[in-house]
Amino acid sequence: MVDGHVKDGPHAFSLATTVGPQTASKIFDDDGRLKRTGTEWTGSAHIITAVIGSGVLSLAWATAQLGWIAGPTVMLLFSAVTYYTSALLADCYRSGDPLTGKRNYTYMDAVAANLGGIQVKLCGILQYFNLFGVAIGYTIAASISMTAMKRSNCFHEHGDKSPCHISNNPYMIIFGVAQIFLSQIPDFDQIWWLSYVAAIMSFTYSSIGLGLGIAKVAGLIQLYVLIGHAENGKFKGTLTGISIGPGVSQTDKVWRSFQALGDIAFAYSYSMILIEIQDTIKSPPAENKTMKKATLVSVLVTTVFYMLCGAFGYAAFGDSSKGNLLTGFGFYNPFWLVDIANAAIAIHLVGAYQVYSQPLFAFVEKYARETFPENDFITKEIKIPIPGFKPYNLNLFRLVWRTCFVVITTVISMLLPFFNDVVGLLGALGFWPLTVYYPVEMYIAQKRIPKWGTKWVCLQILSVACLIISIAAAVGSIAGVVVDLESYKPFKTTY
After folding, report:
1. Which residues of 167-193 are buried (b: 16+ CB within 10 A; e: fewer)?
2. How far is CA 141 from CA 303, 346, 403, in A?
3. What are 281's strand-pairing partners?
4. What is the 3-state secondary structure (H, E, C) of 457-491?
5. Could you say which DSSP state residue 330 is in?
6. Which helix (H) or strand (E) holds 384?
7. How far is the C-alpha of 388 from the C-alpha of 395, rounded, in Å?
8. Nearest of 109, 83, 96, 98 to residue 13 by alpha carbon
9. 195 forms bridges with which residues in the sheet?
10. Distance between CA atoms of 88 and 82, rounded to whole angstroms?
11. Which helix (H) or strand (E) holds 51?
């Protein structure tokens, strides 16, 4: 989502013709790059696109595992931690003066400038592995939503008790083909429109899921003539979450509670692309001030949505809340509204996939250019005329590498189609290091906070507490994957 400029830095794209540093002008910023045009609102749109993703649909299930007390409390705590550490991270965009200091164009650049050494490599491995994992998770989620549309129509035609088993592999392939074409858009600055479309879609399906949950609780959903009666409104759920009994042992409850933490962490996961988003913001005012406002707006909006979706989903279904509210068929009717919601999910994930993949694309391509500067396959741009538009610059390495990336993520998604467990594991692996540890450590280094001082101790307590939560969430999610694998057949998953 880099809006209106070409990125620079050791881990991002650079202009073909380098422009030297100079004072800011109407055309160039202070670093000699094309003028940035992003605002608080474009930044908010980009964050919302990244944050209100498919993770929101697992929050009813997560709330069901934790109960009415722990569920909303954990969501509020995650939102507070995410906002606080994002504010710390925003201060690391520039080294030194917040208005004129050297820019750090990527998350890795910020780590290199503030921490250096082995930390940079570790950060790169974690960040790009997490982005790769998110691409897999979004492929799974999009295919499930497309499959759900087909099943919804099947249920409408044959009744809710019909099996309507459908393989999601063809839909993963359809999603992958779409991503192959979209991934050829060279850089973030050219997909800003995709962020706006994706943000609208995320609000669409979140609102539908919320509305259906409220309606079910209130007893307002009228079932079609096929069934011939109205559902009775009933407020479900308990203070402590899912009950121990047939099918749910004490151990199962513990693992599921841990996995719920991972699901909630994933729902707030966007720190690994915050610096890249901030690199779209124009100045003055200082980018960190604008970014903090954008982060506050985004976290407030998403938290309200999350609390409502999680609460009303749990109130509607109680212990039987599905891992994916709209595709688990807690709701069958009105079938056309459920179809609209699932279509919105698929469209949103098309954009979100690109949002998370572009930093990884940029890193690999920049590294290739620096390593093989004389290789025409990597560096040469072939201009392809498009009637009525600017010529498209085709780069063969970009074509091959990005296509391979999409194919690999699609194949892995077909091998591991466990939406809830994958979401929980990704949230667990990315939350502590990328959302908490690095922002805290960079802030300490940048502000030269003395060791064992009050602020230093408080920041370390926050970091350690989040580490413990991340470990617990990872263990719970791995346990979920192990259970899924017991009845799993490669490439033969049906819903």
Report:
1. bbbebbbebbebbbebbebbbbbebbe
2. 21, 8, 20
3. 38
4. HHHHHHHHHHHHHHHHHHHHHHHHHHHHHCCCCCC
5. S
6. strand 382-384
7. 21
8. 109
9. none
10. 10
11. helix 40-51
For the chain, 495 residues long, give each residue's pLDDT as a single digit of tens.
434 443 344 343 333 333 444 444 667 666 666 667 777 777 777 777 767 665 666 777 888 888 888 888 888 988 888 889 988 888 888 877 777 778 888 888 888 888 888 888 888 888 888 888 888 888 888 888 888 787 777 776 766 566 667 777 888 899 999 998 888 877 655 566 776 777 788 778 777 777 777 776 666 444 433 334 444 445 676 777 777 777 777 777 888 888 788 778 777 777 777 888 887 777 778 778 888 888 888 888 888 878 877 777 777 777 777 666 655 544 455 677 778 888 888 888 888 888 778 888 888 888 888 888 888 888 887 787 878 777 777 888 888 889 999 999 998 888 776 655 666 677 777 788 888 898 999 889 888 888 888 889 999 999 998 898 888 888 877 777 777 676 666 655 555
CB 261 within 8 A of CB 81: no
